[in-house]
Each structure stands twice: as C-alpha cells, then as structure tokens.
Amino acid sequence: MISNECFNCSDPNVGLSINEERTYIKCYMGDTGLLVSHAFNENELSDGELFREILFKKLSINEGMLFENLVMQMLVAAGHRPFFYTHYNNIQHRNDIEIDFLISNKSKLHYKVYPLEVKSTDRYSTVSLTKFKEKFRQKIGQCYVIHPKNLQKKDGVVCIPAYMTFCL
Length: 168
Description:
Elements: E1 3-9, E2 20-29, H1 32-39, H2 47-55, H3 63-77, E3 83-89, E4 94-104, E5 113-118, H4 127-135, E6 143-147, E7 152-154, E8 157-161
Parallel strand pairs: 1-3, 5-6, 6-8
Antiparallel strand pairs: 1-2, 3-4, 4-5, 7-8
C-alpha cells in the first residue's frame, strides 16, 4: 500500500484491464504527505516548515504532481482502479491526447468509461479531453475535470473541486 499503479489503456472499451498496456505505467505514492517529504528530503526545512512554505506558495514545486497524486489517492480509496490514456501522434512525434485517469461505472449492462482530467491551477485548457470525447463518443459517459475552483459545468464537462472526487 506504499504506491498505487496506473496502467495505460490503449482502447477504453468494455473492461479497461483487457486493453491495459503494462509497459506504460504511472506510479503514485499511497500517501501524498509522504511524497512531499520524500521529494524535499534534502532541503534544510523541517516537515512543518516545508508544508507551510508549500501552502503559502513560497516554494517552487510542481503542484500538478501533488494534485494528481492526491486525486489518485482519493480514487483508490473510493474503490476505483484507475487507468490513463495516451495517444502518440506519429506525424507530430508527440502525444496529442493525454487523459490523466479513466474509471468505469462497473456496470455489466450499461458500461461506460469516465475520463478525468486533473488541473492544479485556475487557468487550463481541455483540448485532450475534447479530442478524447470526439474519438470515443460511443464508449464514454460524463467527462470530468478535477480542479481547485467551485463546481461548474461548461461545454458538457463537469468541473468538480478536488474534495468531491470521492463522489465519482
């Protein structure tokens, strides 16, 4: 229970684990506080000072990494086995679609996949989510963005604050 694994799903279809690519994996710490402590263990700050510096934005860190780890921790605690999706564009030589997490509704008769994008700042775009939605229209249910703002719905995407992740 030290880490949570998230495998790439090459085709978000019935049974995400059927199409999992075990060569592409994201590892998340099971405890976000432990992640922060390990990430900054060479600094001369005590743990209390470290968290205070992060909260008051006095320390330059990748907040997206922490936010995504926190969301993964909440999804696993809620009983989900999340996957992620990435599509490599051979012409442009880069990923053109990246979805942070895919979860399913676990239904046998009305199976749907729910893509989740995690955004740690107030300003963001949902280009990947829009492309994913167009590509897999028949297979997906509601699209979600987990962000630091209030609950809202825009362009058919439900944007929820991080504390509501357990509701998914």
